[in-house]
Amino acid sequence: MQRAINRGQLTFMNHIFGPVNSRRLGRSLGIDLLSEKICNLNCIYCEVAATTRLTCERSEYVPTADIIAEIDRYFSDADRLTEIDVVTVTASGEPTLHSGFGEILAHLKAKTGKPVAVLTNGTTLTDKQVRQELALADVVIPSLDSAREESFRKLDRPASCIDLSKVIDGLVEFSHEYKGKLWLEILFAQGINDSAADVEALQDVLDRLRVDRIQLNTVARPPLLAYAQPVLEYRLQEIATLLRKRNPDCPVDLLAQGAPTNDTGASGGKGQEQTEVLDEIIQMLKRRPCTAADINKIFHCGDPEKVEQYLAPLVRSGRIHTRSHEDRLYYVFHEE
Ligand code: SF4
C-alpha cells in the first residue's frame, strides 16, 4: 500500500489531513485511523517507517470516539464539505486493523454524504467482518504486489500470521461480492517481483478477480530499505502492455514512472534513446542468442563488461536469461 501516510509531508489534525489533490480521486480529505506504524506487513518500499507493531490483531488502537469527535469538529464548518470530492480512509499502517473501522466508515458516509475511498494492503480481506465493513466504501483500493510466496515475502515481509494463498482467496471473494469500485494496485520493485513468472502469477489471480482498474506502481519515493529500487521504465511499460493485452476490458494505469535505463553505464545515449537501444538488443535476442561481445560489436557499448552491466537488471528480472555453451555465455530472450 504505497500511499500510506508519511506524516512529515502533510498538515495534520490528529487524524485528519488535507485536502490533497489526488489524480485518481480528486480533492481528497484523508482520515488516518492509527497514530503509530501498526501493520501486518513491513514492506521494504514503505515510505512511512519500519513497522513498529507487526500484527494481525484487530484492535481499537486509537479510541473510535476520538476519531469520530475529530471528524465532527472538522465538519462543524459546513463550507469544508464544498472543498472536497472524496474522503479517503487510510493510516500510517493498515487501516482495517482498527476495530472501529466499520463504525468510522459509516459515520463518514452519514456525516459527509461524500464518496468514501479506502486504501488497504488487502491482507485482512480473509476476514468476513472486514469484507462486510469495506462493503460500505464507494471505492476500495487494495494492493497485491505478488502472487508468489518468494517475492511476496521479500518485498512485503508479512507477519507470520499472513497466508498469501488465503489473502488471494479473500481478495477474489471480496471482488465478486463488492458492489463498489475496486481498483487493484500492484507495486513492482526491480529484480524482486518484476520477473515473467511474477507477472504470470499475478495474471492468474487477475483471471479470478472482478476489478474495475489495475494500477501499476513502482518505488517512487525514498523507500524504507535502499535495495527497494524502482523497476526499469522499459520493464514497467512491458508489463503494462502485457496486462492490457490479457485484460482488454480493464483499464491498466501507470501511477509512477520506472527508472531510466541510463544508470547502467551503457554508452548508447540518454533516456529515451537508451530505452530504444535496449529494445533493439531485445529484438535481436528474440532472433538469436548473443554473447556480450556480439552485442558490443553491434551497439558499441564500450566493452563487453559494460554490456553485462547494462543487461544485468533485465537478467535479474527474468526478462532475459543467460545460458552457457562451449565456454561462452549467451544472452537469451525469455518468451512470456
Ligand atoms: S502495507 Fe506496506 S507500505 Fe503499506 S503501511 Fe504497511 S508496510 Fe507500509
Can you tell me about this structure?
The chain has ten helices and twelve strands. It has 336 residues and is α/β, with parallel strands linked by helices. The protein is elongated and about 75 Å long. About 4% of the residues have low confidence. Iron/sulfur cluster binds next to loops.
Task: List the SSEs and their pairings.
Blueprint: E1 16-22, E2 26-32, E3 38-39, E4 53-54, H1 64-74, E5 86-90, H2 101-112, E6 116-120, H3 128-134, E7 139-142, H4 149-156, H5 164-177, E8 181-188, H6 196-206, E9 213-218, H7 233-246, E10 252-254, H8 271-287, H9 292-299, H10 304-316, E11 320-325, E12 328-333
Parallel strand pairs: 2-5, 3-4, 5-6, 6-7, 7-8, 8-9, 9-10
Antiparallel strand pairs: 1-2, 11-12
Bound molecules: iron/sulfur cluster.
| Uncertain residue segments | 6-11, 263-271
Class from helix and strand fractions:
alpha/beta
Quote the beta fraction. Answer: 15-25%
Total of DSSP H or I helical runs spanning 4+ residues = 10
At the third CATH level, what is the topology name of the largest domain?
TIM Barrel
Form type: elongated
Mean pLDDT: 89
Overall tally of structural domains: 2
CATH homologous superfamily of the largest domain - what is it? Aldolase class I
Distance separating the two termini: 27 Å
What's the arrangement of strands in the largest beta sheet?
Answer: 1-2-5-6-7-8-9-10
Alpha carbon gyration radius: 22 Å
Quick take:
The chain is an alpha/beta fold and 336 residues long. The chain has helices spanning 64-74, 101-112, 128-134, 149-156, 164-177, 196-206, 233-246, 271-287, 292-299, 304-316, and strands at residues 16-22, 26-32, 38-39, 53-54, 86-90, 116-120, 139-142, 181-188, 213-218, 252-254, 320-325, 328-333. The protein contains ten helices and twelve strands.
